[in-house]
Request: fold
Amino acid sequence: ICTTRIVTGFGVPQLTAIMDSREGVRLSGRDIPIIADGGIRASGDIVKALAAGAETVMLGSMFAGTEESPGSSVIRDGQKIKVVRGMASLGAALGRQAAENSGGESAEDQEDWDKVVPEGVEAVVPYRGEVSDVLHQLVGGLRSGLSYGGANNILELQENAEFIEISPAGIMESGTHDVRKI
Reply:
């Protein structure tokens, strides 16, 4: 789980990064694939990333809660969860160091770790079951998004895409409202 933008003050929102990258690739005349990496929480985010010009998306946090992902599931407050960590988190860095040195750290090495500035965090995600079930839902949402976009494939989606800015009230209206989810 990346915190680079917060820690360093550098970075841009994912859709902006995709659209800017797509324009740069177009101007270069080269065939370079664009990979959306971050901010994907639902199938609709995949549709938007592809419509903006990405050829593929990274789905780390979407798969982190699945049975097949590393780590054990635990019950917390009656909910099944999994602990995940960003590859730039302190925990991941310590894990890599331990694997490289078989845990034989000197006092000097430990002092060096005090100087590490992590750009990721450890967190919990809901347990999501089998990865095949998650993929089924994501593919279904992508197919539906293609149809709403008047597209038979990703290239047509990119050609048809039109983005508009919506207000916070519009965002709330887009989700479930006036009901309690069960």
About this structure: The CA atoms of residues 89 and 120 lie 4 Å apart. The mean pLDDT is 86. The first strand starts at residue 35 and ends at 36. Residues 131-148 form the longest helix (18 residues).
